């Protein structure tokens, strides 16, 4: 197998579950040294142990700029540089409607979904400039483009992620740093049943039952005969992170099996 990220160093936020975990596994299999960040200490450490010396888990809450900075600095201290950042951490925040949303939901939602991307880019860029370039991929969503995929705040925050991606790609392009986003849809992960916090409170068997039900439901949500899986997004992120994506910048890559093109059933 050609190793497409040999000798590269990556940070993946939200690497303790779902899409981030799947991307960490794929990146390591392609020769990358990976730092995974998240709040779930036991899970994060178990994933790092399983992936071996090429993976480091760092506990971090991405609503805090200083903790984000520490993750980037830890990557450079442990592996010597930073080439790739996948700003992936997120949750289905702010489910309230436009007439019921609260200031707390607004502040937390925006800080988690947009702030983590803004400050991730800020603190990765300094290291990438020093290394002569890099690739940043932000996890947006088809919610950025489509009505009623989660609440309006989630959608608007993800739209901001997609547009911030374009702005950052223009500003950082002259330094050979590309900034792109992926916009997933219908990927079977715990985000659909309460996120990784809820998944952490369930047994393996309970998670497996929920996941099987979710996969069956999501299989009906796209034109394809299957739900999406974390690996489907990880492969797209791998392309954007690797040298094969060297002239792709400021792009929002939708990976949703075609859900975005379907008539919205409004449910
Ligand atoms: P998931 O399995 O629930 O994973 C979410 C990840 O984000 C976990 O690793 C979680 O880790 C981390 N996270 C959440 N809040 C955090 C915080 N405050 N600080 C640090 N890490 C935090 O869900 P997923 O589907 O893989 O979601 C990953 C990304 O994909 C999200 O940005 C989501 O919006 C986006 N997305 C997913 C879909 C989909 O169909 N699944 C569609 C569109 C977009 P800890 O709990 O350990 O902190």
Give the arrangement of secondary structure elements.
Blueprint: E1 9-13, H1 18-29, E2 33-38, H2 41-51, E3 55-59, H3 65-79, E4 84-87, H4 103-131, E5 134-139, H5 152-172, E6 177-184, H6 195-200, H7 204-218, H8 230-241, E7 252-255
Parallel strand pairs: 1-2, 1-4, 2-3, 4-5, 5-6, 6-7
Helix pairs in contact: 1-8, 3-4, 4-5
The chain binds NADP nicotinamide-adenine-dinucleotide phosphate (NAP).
Walkthrough of the structure:
By secondary structure, the protein is an alpha/beta fold. The chain has 2 domains: 9-185 and 229-254, NAD(P)-binding Rossmann-like Domain (Rossmann fold, 3-Layer(aba) Sandwich), CATH 3.40.50; 190-227, no CATH class. 45% of the residues lie in helices and 14% in strands. It contains 8 helices and 7 strands, in the order βαβαβαβαβαβαααβ. It has helices spanning 18-29, 41-51, 65-79, 103-131, 152-172, 195-200, 204-218, 230-241, and strands spanning 9-13, 33-38, 55-59, 84-87, 134-139, 177-184, 252-255. Strands 3-2-1-4-5-6-7 form a 7-stranded parallel sheet, sandwiched between helices. α2 (41-51) links the parallel β2 and β3 (55-59). It is globular and about 45 Å long. The model has no long low-confidence stretch (mean pLDDT 96). The structure holds NADP nicotinamide-adenine-dinucleotide phosphate (NAP). NADP nicotinamide-adenine-dinucleotide phosphate binds next to α1 and α6. The site of NADP nicotinamide-adenine-dinucleotide phosphate has 31 residues, from α1 and α6.
